[in-house]
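tl;dr need the bound structure. longer version: we got a ligand (iron/sulfur cluster) that a collaborator sent over and nobodys looked at where it sits. i said id run it. heres the input, straight from their email, havent touched it
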Amino acid sequence: MTQLVQPLADAYGRVATDLRVSLTDKCNLRCTYCMPAEGLDWMATEQQLTDDEVVRLVQIAVERLGVQEVRFTGGEPLVRRGVVDIVARTHDLGVETSLTTNGLGLARTADAFAAAGLDRVNVSLDTVRAETFHTLTRRDRLHDVVAGLAAAAAAGLGPVKVNAVLMRGTNDDQAAELLTWCLERGYELRFIEQMPLDAQHGWSRDDMVTADEILASLEAAFDLTPAEEPRGSAPAELFTVDGGPGTVGVIASVTRPFCGDCDRVRLTADGQVRTCLFAREESDLRGALRAGASDADLAERWLVAMRGKAAGHGIDDPSFLQPTRPMSAIGG
Ligand code: SAM
Ligand code: SF4
C-alpha cells in the first residue's frame, strides 16, 4: 500500500525536505569554534538512538513526511561504529544520502561508503598548514584529512565539498591559499561564517570573520563572478572563480541569513527533533518511540514540532540567546 505523504510544513509556508541526522555528539578533534580542549560530557550510550531506531525514524521521515535528502553528521559521524550500515539502509529507502565529516578515518572507509550507496561527502578543513591545523583543532591530523579527501574523490563520493571556518588571527589570512589548494584538486570549497554555537560560548559578533571580509580577501587573489544558477534553498552563495569551472561558496548564516528559504529539519543523536540550529526548544521522539508509539504517531509528533519552527534565527535580535545544546550535539 502506498503511504500518504504529509509534508513537514511550518507556519511560514516552508517545507522541510532535507533531514540532518546527528549520529553521535562525540568527536576526535577539538575545533576551537566548536568545543573546549577537554571535550564535553558526552551523551550516555542508552540516551543515544540505536542504529535500528535511527533507521526507523529516517524511514518515517522519508516515507510519511516527504524527506528527500538525508545528511549524516555529528559530532563526528565516523566515530559511530554502525555508520556505514545506517547509510546503506537509508540509501535503500531511495533518498539521496550525504555525510559531513572531519575526514579522520575516511581514507579507510570511503570505498565502503561508496558501496553502501553514499552519494556525497562534505569534509571540514580550515587550513592546509599543519601548524594552523593543530592550533584550530588541537590535534596533529592534517595528513589524515588530506588522505580522507583524496580517498573520497577516488571512491566517487563527489563532488567533494570542503567546509571551512575562518577564525580571526588564526587562519583568516589563508582563504586564498585554501581555495587554490581545493581548486587544484577539484574540491568545492565553502566558507561558513562562525556561528554562536560553541559549547564554551566564545563567539562574539565583533570578532567573527564576516562574508564581506572573506570575499574581499578572495577577490584580492581571484576574479569572482556570482554564479548564474538560482540558489533556491542552498545556504551557500556561489561564485565562479577566474571564469570557471571552479567555484567557491560563502555560507553567511550570520550576516546574510537565508532563513526564509530554509528546507531543513534536524534529528539529534538522542532522538530530538530540532527545527533550527538555533532553536531553544526541541521535541522528543525517542521517549515516544521507546514507549511503543506507532509510526503514524511518531510522524504526527514530527509534524506538530515543525509547525513551531521560528521564522528566523534572530541572532541580530537583542533578545537572542544561544541554544543550550552546542553544535556538536545538534548536528551541523
Ligand atoms: N565533525 C564533522 C565536521 O566537522 O565536519 C561534522 C559535525 S560539525 C559540527 C559540522 C560543520 O559545522 C563543520 O563543517 C564545522 O566546521 C561546522 N561548525 C562547527 N562549529 C561551528 C561554528 N561555531 N560556526 C560555524 N560552523 C561551525
Ligand atoms: Fe569535531 Fe566537527 Fe566540532 Fe571539529 S567541528 S570539534 S570536527 S564536531
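gonna send this back to them w/ a short note. Residues 36 and 50 are 27 Å apart (CA to CA).
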